[in-house]
Amino acid sequence: MRSSITLRFALSVVLALAAGSCATAPSAPARVSPLGDPGLRQLVTYMSGSFSSQEQAARDAEFRDIRLHMVRIWRDRSDACWLYVEQAGATTLDRPYRQRIYRVTKLAADLYESRVYELPEPSRLAGAWQQPDRLAGIAEAELEDRQGCAILLRAQPDGTFAGSTLGRLCASSHRGSTYATSEVTVSRERLVSWDRGWDAAGKQVWGAETGGYVFSKLESYPLE
Asked: Rounded to two decimals, what is the model's pTM?
């Protein structure tokens, strides 16, 4: 009899402790969206959308008619704003020549970083800007960080963002180059991108020579 009472008492204590534990368990912290920062939201808003260099190509034979798409992906991530980026010639939209993932973060009061990643088997994701959920199954660990190729952008007094890669840090072997540089200006209505490749002696071996590609914004994409 006594052992039965003792057993019931022990069981009641265990249940009480379990109930108390459940009642006082800390709740999971609320997810903080990186878009809560006004400057980062503005930058990503400017970057997200469909762009075209058609007007520039019509004026200047040095430039091709290129279509550029940037759409936000992995929206539940709180560490950064992630964008899927796709570029293709206007006549070969189904065969993009550049597909990247950008990781956009704020580094300081007016300084932002757009880190560049390459995708595994990018051709299978052609057109994913129209169906961002196709990238849901890709893990960050599968991406290749193009170290040294991040673009640092600083907010300008006129509301634009401008910046570039740093020195010779972005290694490249494209068309005989040893490093590449990118200069970028982003505004509400357009994006200017000047990508160039250089050999070991600092001679330009690929890329536009007179200035960057001017992409006019055709459509903006929602961030949330």
From this structure: 0.85
